[in-house]
Each structure stands twice: as C-alpha cells, then as structure tokens.
Amino acid sequence: MPPKTADYDALRRDLIALLGEKGVVDDSETLSPFLKDQRGRYEGQTPFMIRPANTEEVSRAVALCAEAGVPLVPQGGNTGLVAGAVPFPEDGAVLINLGRMNRVRNLDPTDYSITVEAGCILQSVQQAAEAVDRLFPLSLGAEGSCQIGGNLSTNAGGIHVLRYGNARDLVLGLEVVLPDGRVWDGLTALRKDNTGYDLKHLFIGGEGTLGIITAATLKLFPRPRETAVAFIAVAGPAAAVDLLARAREASGDRVAAFELIPRIGLDFALRHVNGIEDPLAETHDWYVLTELASGQADGSLRPVLEDLLASACEDGLVIDAALAANERQAAAFWHIREGLVEGQKFEGGSIKHDVSVPVSKVPSFLDQALTLVKEMVPGIRPVPFGHLGDGNIHFNLSQPEDADREAYLGRWDEVNHAVHSLVVDLGGSISAEHGIGFMKVAENTRFKAPLEIEMMQRVKAALDPKNLMNPGKVVPR
Ligand SMILES: Cc1cc2nc3c(=O)[nH]c(=O)nc-3n(C[C@H](O)[C@H](O)[C@H](O)COP(=O)(O)OP(=O)(O)OC[C@H]3O[C@@H](n4cnc5c(N)ncnc54)[C@H](O)[C@@H]3O)c2cc1C
Questions:
Q1: Ligand 1 center to 299 CA (angstroms)
Q2: Which residue of 216, 240, 422, 471 is surrounded by the most CB atoms within 10 Å?
Q3: Which of 288, 289, 292 has the alpha carbon at shortest distance from 317?
Q4: Residue whose CA is at the smallest distance from ligand 1 atom 50
Q5: 362-376 and 412-425 helices cross at what angle (nearest 10)?
Q6: 359 pocket-lining for ligand 1 (C-beta < 6 Å)
C-alpha cells in the first residue's frame, strides 16, 4: 500500500528545491515510457520520477524520501526483462532514473580500469575503452540503451561471459547510495583487497533492492587484434557441446562466444528482419555461431578454426559451416543472432524462460523440455537459443500458428512451472542472467532453499530495515 502518512506534496516541493523543475517529472505523457516494462507485460505508476545529476543529489533525494517514508524504485535504461524497474501502484514509490549521471570519471589504460557513473550507456563505456585501445567486454543486445548501473544491478551476462565472466566479474569497486541516503565510497581500482566481506557483491545483482549504484570502477582488457567467426550447422545440441569442448582446447581457450541457434529462429529472422541471409546452402535443424578472439594478430586463428571444423566434420559433429571472410560477413552472421528476438515478435505470443544448466546437460535439458512443452501445448513452436557456452538457454516458446494470443499467454505460469521444475531437477537456475525483479519472485521462492531465502531477507532487512528500496522485487515481502 502507498504510505498513508506520506506527504507527497511536501516531498515534491523539497525534491524540486533540490533537483530543480527539470529534475522532477510528473506529467503522464513524459512518464509513460518509463512506466512500461520492456516486454509490455506490466505498466506501473508513480507520483513522480526524479532525475538527479550527481551522487550528492541522489544521496540527498534518497534521504528526503527516507524521511518521508516513501519507497524508491531505481531505473537505468529500462531494458530489464523481469519488471524490476517498474514501480507498482500499491507502493506509491518514486521512480529514480539515473540517465543524467553519464560521465566517465576516470580512464586509466595502464591500470586497465575505467570509472563511470551509473547512467552511462553500456555502448558508450565500450567506446570510451576503445578510444584508449582497451576492451570493456560486456556486450548484449540492449547495449545501445541499457546503462551500466542497470547492468551491474542485474549482474548482466551477454555474449562474452564464456571468456570474460558476468558483469560481477568485471567490477573492481562501487559507489552506492544506501537506503538512508548515506554514500558508501567503495570505488577502488585494487585487484586484491581481502579486508573483510566484499560488500560490492551485495549490490551487484541486487536489482536495486539494497541501494542505488551511482558509479563503478570496471576492469578493462587488451583489445582483440584478430577474430575468426563461423556459422556452423551441427548435428544437434550434443554435437554442439562436444564442438565447444574441442574449440576451447584447440584454440588455447580463445573462444569468445558460442551461441546456439535453432532453424526455426533463423526462419523467423529471415521472414521478418531486414538484411538477414542464410549463410548455408541447405537447411539444418541446429546451428552454432562462434567467435574466436586473440590479442595477437599473427593470422593463427583462422587455421585453428578451419582444422577444428574439418576434424569435427569427419567425426559427424559438424554438417556444414561458413567462415566469415571479412568483418562485413562476420557482422552479417552476428546480425542473425541479434535478429532472433526481433523475428519472434512477429510470430504471436511467446512464453519466455532464461534458464541455465551445466553445459554438459544442455542436450538433455533440451530433449526433455521440448517433449514436455509439445505435450502441454500441441502445435507450440519452441525457439530455444542463446549462450550455449555458459549453459544458458533462452527457452522461448512461440504460440501455435492458429492459437489465440491471450489464451496462449494465459498459460505462461503453468508452462514456466513445468520447465523450471525440469531445470531445477538438472541442477540448473530459473534465471541465468535476467534476474528476479518482480516477475520471478514467487517462482524463485518456490525453488530456492528456504534457508537461502531467509538469508536474503536478513540481508535486505539489515541494509533496508524500512523496506523502502525497490520493495516487492527479488525477495518476497
Ligand atoms: C534486446 C535485449 C537483449 C538483452 N540481452 C541480454 C543479455 O544478453 N544478457 C543479459 O543479462 N540481459 C539482457 N537483456 C536484459 C537487460 O538489457 C539487462 O538486464 C540490463 O542489464 C538492464 O540494464 P538497464 O539499465 O536497462 O536496467 P533497468 O531495466 O533500468 O533496471 C534493471 C534492474 O536494475 C535496477 N537498477 C537500475 N539501475 C540501477 C542503479 N543505478 N542502482 C541500483 N539499481 C538499479 C532496477 O531497479 C531494476 O531492478 C536484454 C534486453 C533486451 C531488451
């Protein structure tokens, strides 16, 4: 329920005095896009949205809301896929958008580090690193609009986890505004620091429930000097897993990405997305898009990939393959991968899962899950794709061609339950990279050990005793 005693008019006046008229938004037209979740499943409500320009303003605004007993929902680029950045009407929460905090505070190529404010768009962080001949390896489909604060708060994954780790692995230090408005200055470029609990990891993946990330010091890497990209038709998911193991060995662990693509996903993309071409002459059921990357431009990668594919072909793992001859062709292969999500949008309702299992169990998961959902919904059109290299499958299920969209989507929870049960039986996770947000709180509570939920609730209560920071997300109320 909205806090009954809160004086929103007084709070609004105080916030305008702090942030200026531009920093407080309450007209419904401007607010509208900030209140809808990315998938269009939820629409929130807020008395107003605030847009602070620096850490001091965030700190003072959070303190004002805390004094007024008004909850806050932090928001970055609003590209999250679990409705974590949506303020729900029952909370009366102020939306705090970090988009104005987009400065690079420090860039040190010698230290291989960059310090950026939370509102920096991911792509601009990549570009800032590139300008000093360094790589910031986090890369995902929404990189042109998601913000680093959102990336860290969701512990985002993306296409390079296999080589560089999740967002969590890319952080050296954080600056965070706590739920009472105090600022924790944990910004550091130290590579080693064992002076107690590593508190930054509470906020990374915390989805804004423990505090607001205002800045981060991130790790940079040498830029790849040479890449080799191939679009490969494989005999099936088991062959793809075998191929990955061989590729890691043959390349000296230089596999930067290894993505699974099903034929139906390619068909949808060919049908609906501009500029997609099938790189192979024949059609096949399963494909892998892989990229090898090396810090040395010695021409060694392409022969490694050619030899690997030749031997995998002899052993029946690979049926056909196209190696990108140049950057343009490599980009065309990646365009197929990026077009998978877009293509599905035109094929009616889609029930989504973002699951992971140990890499070796992906074939068994796919086998069982495909049988299961086909039995549950005859005519269903599964489009399982994604980060096979991390055992992370986006198990998306397009509706049967002639089905009623709303009736089909009405089965979302039922289908999720069945698929998630299978995932958990296989030792997997019901949210590999998108987080829990609002959408998966009940499901997470169902599958996680009660002791783990209790520990999460205790951490939440310790840092946010009044439950003012993104209430109702991640941990059950
Ligand atoms: C086309 C597309 C492709 C995607 N691909 C991937 C992918 O490959 N891998 C992946 O992991 N995700 C992916 N996503 C999901 C999404 O882009 C990521 O979750 C991203 O990290 C969210 O960043 P954001 O700035 O949009 O955060 P938002 O959506 O604004 O917020 C996400 C969560 O973080 C909290 N939050 C935001 N900023 C802060 C802050 N400064 N301090 C504290 N809490 C904050 C919010 O309250 C919310 O709970 C994809 C999304 C789209 C639309």
A1: 37
A2: 216
A3: 288
A4: 142
A5: 150
A6: no
Domain with CATH 3.30.70.2190 in the chain: 226-345
Closest residue to atom 6 of ligand 1, CA basis? 140
Centre of ligand 1 to C-alpha 17, Å, is: 30
Domain 8-100 has CATH 3.20.20.10: no
Q: How far is CA 351 from the centre of its chain?
A: 17
- Domain 350-425 part of CATH 3.50.50.60: no
pLDDT per residue as tens digits for the range 46-91: 999 999 999 999 999 999 999 999 999 999 999 999 999 999 999 9
CATH topology of domain 226-345: Alpha-Beta Plaits (3.30.70)
Q: What is the pLDDT of residues 360-412, one digit of tens each?
A: 999 999 999 999 999 999 999 999 999 999 999 999 999 999 999 999 999 99
Please name the residue whose Cα sits nearest to atom 11 of ligand 1. Answer: 156
The CATH 3.30.70.2740 portion of the chain extends over 350-425
Check if 400 has its Cβ closer than 6 Å to any atom of ligand 1.
no
> 394 vs 98, 205, 359, 365, 391, CA distance in Å?
28, 19, 14, 12, 10
The torsion angles phi and psi of 8, rounded to 5 degrees, stand at -65, -30
Domain with CATH 3.30.43.10 in the chain: 8-100
Tracing tokens 């007209």 back to the chain, one arrives at 27
Q: What is the SS3 assignment for 398?
A: strand
Residue type, 212: I
- Does 154 sit in the ligand 1 pocket, CB within 6 Å? yes
Instruction: Work out which ligand 1 atom sits closest to the CA atom of 38.
Output: 53
